[in-house]
UniProtKB/TrEMBL annotation:
Subcellular location: Membrane
UniProt keyword terms in alphabetical order: Membrane, Metal-binding, Signal, Transmembrane, Transmembrane helix, Zinc, Zinc-finger
Name by which UniProt lists this protein: RING-type domain-containing protein
Gene3D superfamilies: 3.50.30.30, Zinc/RING finger domain, C3HC4 (zinc finger)
GO terms, molecular function: ubiquitin protein ligase activity; zinc ion binding
Residue intervals passing through the bilayer: 174-202
Amino acid sequence: MWLLGFSTFVLLGICSVDALLTVIDPEKGDVIVDVFNDEPLVPFTSTIEGYIEPTNPPDACTSIAAPSFPTDFDLNKIALVNDTNCNWITKVCSAQAAGYDAVVIFRTPDFVNKFDRLLSDKKWNTSEHEECSFNITVTIVHYEDGIVIRDKYAYDSNVKHNYLVNIKEEDTPWPLKLILCFAFSTLPFLACFCVGSAFRYFKEKLRIRRENRASQVNLNKLFPLVKFREGDPYEDCAICWTHFTNGEKLRVLKCLHAYHPKCIDNWILKYQRKCPMCKRLVTLGDSFDATDSDPSESTPLLASSNASNYAPGPSTPNHHVGFFNVPGHAPENFFQPSANISIENSVNHDARPNSELSAQSRFSV
């Protein structure tokens, strides 16, 4: 909420038309003595240059005295008015009726918000101000700047040389203003989007962590650790390719393939709920089982349909064949017998049942 308010404040400051009030010393070759930032209440295009003096009375809520400049004065007459006691329309109308060409209003310390104040004060069509249709330049400055202008740079008829005051629109390129306006207008939405995305990301990470913690507990219950002993039907881990040592703790899956606990736990919890060797599903009873059980585009064809048929028996050694099997990519010669395997296939062309023929087909290593 505070970010939206800050961006709105900056946006109003950037997109509003800014102006500069410059004090010039004509005796020193038009040297700029001081510069003040002001905000025009009525848009203007031409530069106003002249002498400035406080009005009498200072608030200009009633009829004010005429400017004290000479009658043959050919520069603009600028009135300096404080922001008290009445609305701005009354002050401007009083200054225009007295003969001033521009009005500079300096804000008092109790000034809160120039935009709210402007909306409440601009009663252009009320019966009170129907007779006032001003066409002079109106701008405002900060309270401290107004005090400095009044005390140091105001016109004094008893002084031979007075300071000139120049009021002009700030030379800020409009394309840059448009870019800044667009940037600050989208900043709150971009920030909300980033915060929302980060919140969803960390929420999902926490959910996955809780699921993994529960899955680790189920993994320990379903597949407890066993100690490796010489003569067991598995010799090495197919994930890290390291031989098992006597007394080493292993995790044996239902398909009777054994792995190091660290290797298979990371594989199952972070990668895939399948045995790395036979692709048989490993179910832990959590929400991730459904996603891994459905065949996908990357699921091996044989493993997805007949995974249980290829599960090895109790006496099948835990050998790997010199490669790391990535799901969905069967290596060459995977289903071909190696050079160390001889095949004896005794086939008789008689009418014996298929069961007898298959019994004579055997593999011997």
